[in-house]
Amino acid sequence: EVQLKESGGGTVQAGGSLKLSCTAGPGYNFRNCKKGWYRQAPGKERELIASLDAQIDAIPQYGDSVKGRVSISIGRGGKSLDLEISPLKTEDTAMYYCMACTDYWGQGTQVTVTS
Hints:
about 120 residues, mainly beta, single chain
């Protein structure tokens, strides 16, 4: 089992930027399988923000609602999965979740964007 923990959420003004990070438990490397970031706002379905396949040269896939404003990357020797969002919009307010190997999810980190 892969244990994931998100961090970096908070309250930010529209137009600002945020970096979210997801770390995994011992023995897991984010280069191993498909991974990504998703979000869910109250009353809405969970949506893809960004994902990366397992291949070392995988091209990131970005959701339409954030395309051009987000960047996903693997950091810290494969021990973290990072997401940068800029500029933030009020509609980016949601709980953000990290996913690994399709089956594993973190508890989420809240992002609130104020006008």
